[in-house]
Amino acid sequence: MNIRTFDLERIQSLYENTVPINLTESGFHPYTLEELLTPDQIKMITSTVLGYGQTNGSIPLRQIISKLYPNCNEDNILVTNGSAEANFIACHTILKPGDEVVMMVPNYMQIWGIVEEMGCTPKKFHLKEEHNWKPDLEELESKMNSKTNMIALCNPNNPTGYVLSLEEMKAIVNIAKKYDAWIYCDEVYKGADLDNVEKPSFYGMYDKVMVNGGLSKAYALPGLRLGWLVGPEKLIANTWAYHDYTSITAGILSHKIGEIVLQPEKRKEVLRRNISMLNENLKITQEWTEKHGDSLEFVPPKAGGMVFIKYKYPINSTELSDWLRLEKGVFILAGDVYGMDKHFRIGIGAEKKELIKGYEILSNALNERFNV
Q1: Model-wide pTM > 0.85
Q2: Burial class (CB in 10 A: 0-12, 13-18, 19+), 171
């Protein structure tokens, strides 16, 4: 296997745990078990036998995941080690060498590297910043042909926070049907809607749809490494075969905690906590950017845990990120990892006090360097 380095994840892994102020987090401030679980639930977890469990996911866990999607049961679900493994397995199940994949950009770029590694050809269609990140669906259709086997989406989007409207979703489905292509949608931010109204999944809109989900982002539980795939029963059976060659199974403790977190009332509680954090921190972020006049601007996200900020300083985004990390002890993610210079990503799911502290350091640093 010859695969490119996944710059976004590598850069974060190298620096996010060593820098004093990390402003790159893509989810919400994580729970502790004490915050998340009752004493009885903690006792149950500590008495759990540390065996393998069912490798495609426990039946109770797959059943409760299936209730999040229309016309779905446990046989439509494969439980994975995070949504990153789900992406890898989905691509290797659906695609074959020579296929073309049309991918929404900007995007979490893992799938791009997987597609290249498989001997497939990735193509881009864009969310347009000048149109508040609405998708260019004419561009999408122009990239489609008889070799296109997948349209790869991220909804809600990383890093822009854009959420496709139902009309846009239906238009994408119609394009996929026209070319008999699969829709694969990363829905790991599903449920983290700023207006507290959860938007529909692509699953159920077309018979050739597979989506992923997980507990890392909207649920603020990245350390559990619990993800899942949702798709047609026959396709999910095939993904299990690939899962046997990757990680075999997610951890048994993650299964148990996942069964608790996805119970309807607990799920609502977790999402409410994170959406409240998102709205509060978005307001702080808007106030901070306004202090920098027209040097910083962003389209407010509709969902997710981040903002994608455009800047006008005469400096490359990687150079800016490196300087701030090395000289000022604050870490932002360069737009270069998305192929979009003059932008950087800020995670707004952080603790408010850390965010305010980070913005103060950023303001002083930018004023010092660019005299603004």
Answers
A1: yes
A2: middle
